[in-house]
Specification:
GO terms for molecular function: nuclease activity. It holds the Pfam family BFN_dom. The protein has one domain: Bifunctional nuclease domain, CATH 3.10.690.10. It is 33% helix and 34% strand. The chain contains five helices and eight strands. Strands 6-5-4-7-1-2-3-8 form an eight-stranded mixed beta sheet, sandwiched between helices.
Length: 164
């Protein structure tokens, strides 16, 4: 397993949200990145998790964090474990009073929960080998502009845009 960070949240050429993960020990423009396509609502949840402003009412991932705290459980590990036919799979390992529990999760939900709990995200090495691409970025992306553009997209998106 390789520890990663969220290197960005972007829109591809078809306006589909992509979360980009990058190994912690690699610098910008070197090594690999792992793009994972997600839904618009999931991207909004990740974006909200990166924002320090609490929502007026708990969102689903905020509720999950509160439930874990109420049950004396904590997130031990977030891991993107495999890719099968283009679909990524993740697991959330919880440390509970009854012992460790491993839950199947969508990567977008696991990543969003990691932001809310401060948990490190891990990616299986074979997933990075199979789906990672060369990081050829030459200059630092202006995160504030990227977040602003993505937020504008989310304000105008219609859930029907994501139906098959």
């Amino acid at each position: 397993m390789i520890p990663v960070r969220i290197a960005g949240l972007a829109l591809d050429a078809r306006q589909q949200p992509v979360v980009i993960l990058k190994p912690l020990d690699e610098d910008l423009g070197h090594g690999r990145i792992l793009p994972i396509w997600i839904g618009g609502l999931e991207a909004a949840a990740i974006l909200k998790g990166a924002d320090d402003t609490p929502p007026p009412r708990p969102l689903t991932l905020d509720l999950m964090r509160s439930m874990l705290e109420a049950l004396d459980a904590e997130v031990e590990r977030i891991a993107v474990t495999r890719i099968d036919d283009g679909t990524f799979y993740a697991e959330i390992t919880l440390n509970t009073p009854l012992g460790d529990r491993v839950l199947d999760a969508r990567p977008s939900d696991a990543i969003g929960l990691s932001l809310r709990t401060g948990s490190v995200i891990w990616v299986a090495e074979d997933v990075l080998d199979q789906a990672g691409i060369a990081d050829e970025r030459e200059e630092q992306v202006d995160e504030e502009e990227e977040v602003k553009a993505f937020s504008e997209f989310l304000e105008h998106v219609d859930p029907e845009d994501f139906q098959g």
